[in-house]
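It is worth pausing here to work through a concrete case rather than discussing structure prediction in the abstract. The textbook approach is simple: state the sequence, then state the predicted structure, then interpret. We follow exactly that order.
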Amino acid sequence: MTTNSQNKPVNTWKSTAAGILCLVAGVLAIIFALTMLGRHEVITFGITHTGRWRVMGVFALLMGIMSIIGGIFALMRKAWGAALAGAITALYPWGVFGILAIIFVAMGKQEFSTPAAKVAENKPAGT
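Step two, the predicted structure:
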């Protein structure tokens, strides 16, 4: 881990790139979801396929929301687990963005803040 003179982690481009990739994938997933949810009935040989489009739309909407949340956490460099989950959910709509986001979040793990439980363990008594 690279540090500056005050022993704080140096912020590199990895977490920023992962956050931006997650945000882009999330926005694209939401656009895809709204397209799927907005489709009218598709009738093929007398069989209605409306339910399948709605299920795909809801799933894409959930993946998009989680990708955006993970991207925000990656940009803030907090909650590494949530940022990684957001990068993983970015795989669904646009695989390339998700793969790159997972790689960058994993490479920038040391840039994320220490979890609150570990901070509480390391505090001296009485402070």
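Step three, interpretation. The two ends are 28 Å apart (CA to CA). The chain has a mean pLDDT of 78.
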